[in-house]
Each structure stands twice: as structure tokens, then as C-alpha cells.
């Protein structure tokens, strides 16, 4: 019986930790819309993919050069700083 109680307590602790972790990150997702020259979309994607952990680029309207940057509120300040230093003309959309 003691072993079952220990296992149950461990499971409850693990569940509690998982829930707390989820709560702390549930509002962290951030989607940033931007416009860039069509010819620079692929280059922007390569730059951001090269940074790996900061974000992902998705083209939303190729004809207009509109992209969506998927990142987190925690990574966006660093990614924004890097993007502003790139030799690309990019407009962040509201």
C-alpha cells in the first residue's frame, strides 16, 4: 500500500509541475505580421531559420510580400533587434 501511495504522490507532483509550466507559457506565443520585398522573403526565412530558436517565418501573401513571424514574447525583443540590423527593408504591420 505504501508503494502505491508514493507512486500516486509522485504522479500528483509531476502533474502539478506540468500544469504550472503550462500556465507560465500559455500566453507567450506572439505572431508578428510584416511586409518585405517579394525577392527578400526567402532570405528573411533563411536568416531567421539560422537563428533557430527565435522564430519561424511563414509567407501569408507572396504577391504582397506579407509574412508572419511566429515567436514568443520572450524571444521577440532579441529577434526584432536582429531583424532591424539586417540589410532588408521590412515593415512591421499592425
Automatic annotation (TrEMBL):
* Pfam families from the UniProt entry: DUF4911
According to the lineage, what is the superkingdom? Bacteria
InterPro entries assigned: DUF4911
Under what name is this protein listed?
DUF4911 domain-containing protein
